[in-house]
Structure formats: structure tokens, C-alpha cells
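Data card: per-record layout.
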Amino acid sequence: MVLNSISGLFSNDMAIDLGTANTLVYLKGKGIILNEPSVVAVKKNGRGAGRVLAVGREAKMMLGRTPGNIVATRPMKGGVIADFDIAEAMLRYFIRKAHAGHRLARPRIIIGVPSGITEVEKKAVRESAESAGAREVYFIEEPMAAAIGAGLPVTEPKANMIVDIGGGTTEVAVISLGGIVYSISVRVAGDRMDEAIIEYIRRKRGVLIGSSTAETIKMKIGNAFPGGEHEDFEVKGRDLVTGIPKIVKMCSDEAREAISEQVRAISGAVHTALEQMAPELSADLIDFGIMLAGGGALLKNLDLLLNTETNLPVKIADDPLSAVAVGAGMALSNLEILRNLDK
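The structure for this 343-residue chain is written out next.
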């Protein structure tokens, strides 16, 4: 008890957006202080096997480039923990970095989780955070955090629709009077788009590329709806026949075709949510529309596609990448929201 009191003196409460692609850390009183890839590089075998060699940005640079005795991996899959030990090591690294390496830091932490998370998955997140040094762990559903971070009036008696597209999951939720009225979580998001681009280039060009290259293609020329100027991108990979490096071109129309299935799944989730809403809440959306958050909100013309399909106004959060972390961080200072969290 005394140790907890002492460690609390060195700790600031934290909010963590523990994403499949990136982890953001919000420190109370300071805002977002960390935004790094959710990647860990570990020594695989030999002397010191299991030792963490790098975390975050440095580890991501190693993806696809490591020697046989080192593996760079993502401990999060589909928005939940896939590797408990690696996730714990990653969380410990981020907690210590946020507190300038102070080993006595034992902060209270709010973690954003997908709305479709199971109790078993939630338990894994809690245990990882506690093992990594958290004094207390709270949860907030990612769509609620994203809505708060995007500035939606979530406590008012009117419908707010948030579509949070991350790396592993897309969360669609309707929020009113401080609670989630309806939510749907689909494990189709940015990572699935990257996989689809890899498969498309392999099939159409006979060239194999890595996930980092696919992500770059998605960000540079990826788009959800026809329109805008035609763009080309030079893709560097390995020829599947000769085995030697090769450069091929991909255009924006092909990029749209490659990710069309994933875009349809996201659009389908939005349509499902609209169909399940009460008429009174549907009427609210005619005026207030749909808010997009998460890294996937930056996919070109996604807002235009949803606007065309729903005839509703579609807006993108001012800073879609940090909306969940900011919203969870705001909950740290709001006891009314904090009491409603699933501790």
C-alpha cells in the first residue's frame, strides 16, 4: 500500500490507444506525447533469446529486413492482443518512455478497446497493462473515445454517428445521451487493405511486395471513389518468376480496385448501423451526419463515397489519427465519464 502511494507520486494518469498499427499515449496535463508503430523486435534464438531489441518506430524499420535470429512482429491483431508477452513488453516500454524511464511509475491507465471485444480479450489487455506497471486499468470503447476526441456532443439527446477506421477494426457506433445506442465492429480496416494490395500486385504483376510498401501505396494513391486526377506510383518488389528486384507501375484506378472489397465492407457496416437505428435518431443524422475518425478516414474520397451512398453529410475529424487517444485522455479528467467506464 505504501509502495503504491509512493509510486503514484511519480505517475501521471495515462490514456492509451492500443492500436493494431499504431499506439498513441496521452499523458494527463500534457496531451499526446507518444505516437509510435505497434511493433516489437525480439531476438528469436541463441543467447538472450526472447530479449526485446527495439519497440515502435525503430522496430517497424526492421519489418521484413531482419536476420534469421531476430523477428519483428505486431502483438496486436484485429484490435486485440495476439501475443501476450510481446504486448506486455511493448506497453512497459511506452509507459516508461512516457514517464521518462522512471521505474517506480505506476499510473492509472484508460485503454481504448474495440466495441466487439470479448471478456477473454479484455482480460488479456488488462493483465498485459497491469504486468507492464499499471496501478489501475479502465476501459473505454474506441468509438466513444473517438466521438469525444472528434468533438461530437455525445452527452446531448441526439444521434451522433462515428466511424472509426483503424488498422485492425472498423467501429461504427451511434451515440446519444452519453452512451452507445448501437455499435458494430468489423475486423476489416487498414491492414486488410494492405494485404489486398499485396495480393493484387502479386496476381496482376507477378511481383511480391512487403506490407510497408503496400501501406505507402494505400496512402499515396489509394482511393475509395472515382474522381480527382489520375495518379501513378512506382512499385518496387521481387519478381516471382526470376527472383530479382523489379519495378512496376500501379495507377490510382488499380489501387481502388485492389481495396474495393474492404471499402464495401466498411460501407456495409455503416448501412447496417443506419438500418438498425430508431427513426428519431435517423432524423438527427439528416442534420448532423457522419463523423469519420482513425487512420482509415484519410483514405481519399471515402467521405465522398459514403455521402453518395447515404445522402448524409460526412465529415472527417480534425485530427482523425489521434481522436481515440484524445477522447480517452479527456475521460481521465471527467469523473462522470470515468464512472461509466468498465473498470
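Known properties of this structure: The longest helix spans residues 260-276. The domain at 190-258 is CATH 3.90.640.10 (Actin; Chain A, domain 4).

See the next section for split statistics.
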